[in-house]
Amino acid sequence: MGTPGQAWGPAEQAQWRARQVRQRSYASDVLAVVEGLRTRFDVSRYGEVAYGDDRYPVHAIRPRQWVAGLPTVLVTGGVHGYETSGVLGALRFVDVHGERYAGRVNWVVAPCVSPWGWERIQRWNHDAIDPNRSFRPGTTVQESAALMALVAPLRGQFAAHIDLHETTDTDESEYRPALAARDGKAFQPGTIPDGFYLVDDTENLQPAFQQAVLQAVAAVTHIAPADDRQQIIGSPVLAPGIIAYPLQALGLCASVTGARYTTTTEVYPDSARTTPEECTAAQVAAVCAVMEFVLR
């Protein structure tokens, strides 16, 4: 799409948008589940993502018992709308484990940050922008700005933040070529790792925390090995299954709280060695491991 070597303009963005077809329902898949949790938890609307006639309320879920002085943990899913197990894992954590940690941890779950992307199984938002490169002061990206506004009153209270993601085959076959075309750059092929891995913060490495999360997940699904260059998706492997990015510099979601302990999960749902259920269970195991770590 577009002219090789030239970044997209409004015409190319509109052409790309016209190809995005609604494939699933945010109202049925997410909002209905959130409403079902309202009888046991505090559910609040923290914003709305609106594109034309498409309007999506976004919600946060918390325990009804909020205790001053307890560690606070943020759980985010669906920053990339096509990464299914992150949304399902966040919702399942609340349903199955939320009450167990209530009164022990002040947890906040934003289960689907990018509802337009969820419905279209798309990484980008309506404007062909990646929300997970847009968590910066003054951002105009609706999905990112709404979450940052939710977090702002609690900054300084967070002990940890876990952001639930997937790495899929379409990252290589669809998203990365589209990213290169959008930005007028040449596409550089890469490889997709087979298995689960974590992304730490290069400016705030917390190896013991990452290992605790990875150990819990390893009981559920397999961990991604390094490639022949000792890398995962082009980044050096710091320890088996762990790489690091400069979170704040890249505008990544995991930077929004300023917490000491942050991690981004990456599940590989296209592996022949896993199932959709196993991917969701791995996300839940990772969230529970974060809760247990801050309690220690």
TrEMBL record:
<dbReference type="GO" id="GO:0004181">
    <property type="term" value="F:metallocarboxypeptidase activity"/>
</dbReference>
<protein>
    <submittedName>
        <fullName>Peptidase</fullName>
    </submittedName>
</protein>
<feature type="active site" description="Proton donor/acceptor">
    <location>
        <position position="266"/>
    </location>
</feature>
<comment type="similarity">
    <text>Belongs to the peptidase M14 family.</text>
</comment>
<dbReference type="GO" id="GO:0008270">
    <property type="term" value="F:zinc ion binding"/>
</dbReference>
<dbReference type="GO" id="GO:0006508">
    <property type="term" value="P:proteolysis"/>
</dbReference>
<dbReference type="InterPro" id="IPR000834">
    <property type="entry name" value="Peptidase_M14"/>
</dbReference>
<feature type="domain" description="Peptidase M14">
    <location>
        <begin position="22"/>
        <end position="294"/>
    </location>
</feature>
